Amino acid sequence: MTEELLPKNITLIDFPFTVGLVLDKLSSITKFGHMSGRFHFYVVGGVVRDTYRNKATSKTDIDIAFSGEFSLLMGLIRAEGSCTVVMENTHLHTARIAFTDATSSTRVEFDLAQLRAEDYTPGNIYPHVSFDNIPIQWDLARRDFTINAIAYDAKTHEIFDPFRGYEDLQKGLIRVLHDLSFQDDPTRKDRALDFVRRFGYALEDSTQRLMEE
Length: 213
Hints:
Mean pLDDT: 92
Shape: globular
Number of helices: 8
Oligomer: single chain
């Protein structure tokens, strides 16, 4: 068994500057509503992955996961008035938000998603979704590949990497998180092949076997 590669420490300055703009905006919005303590934000997904790959740019998609009440946060965003709600899914508790930074005149879009857990049952196309007291590790467990299941805690600056995604990034491997991943979401096959093509990575052995099956 190879020794686990622990994630290299990254700080906010390592991310594209637009990530800092988003976190500052969310901080100002929750302070505006006197509810800073009601929310906890995490940078997740592709921007974390690409920052570790030294490929992140200011145009990188920004995904923010958060603990707290979705409807309350959306109410604060609308009340504060400087953001546009581009899209909102009240079933999945997700939204796309846009704003223009007053200092740099940079227009930024980002995706918000409340921490959730998903449970797929046989015969059901859509999963059962739960939002109650979900830790970041459970939210990461519903994602497609280990390299996309790394999170940066905007408050404590900790890195959460429960599926050793950083190690797979260093090895150039695409690995699913569990054996039923492609059954849960068949579109993951296309995404896996897209990452192979774009990044020059290889399918991890068991992932390739599961895909073929």
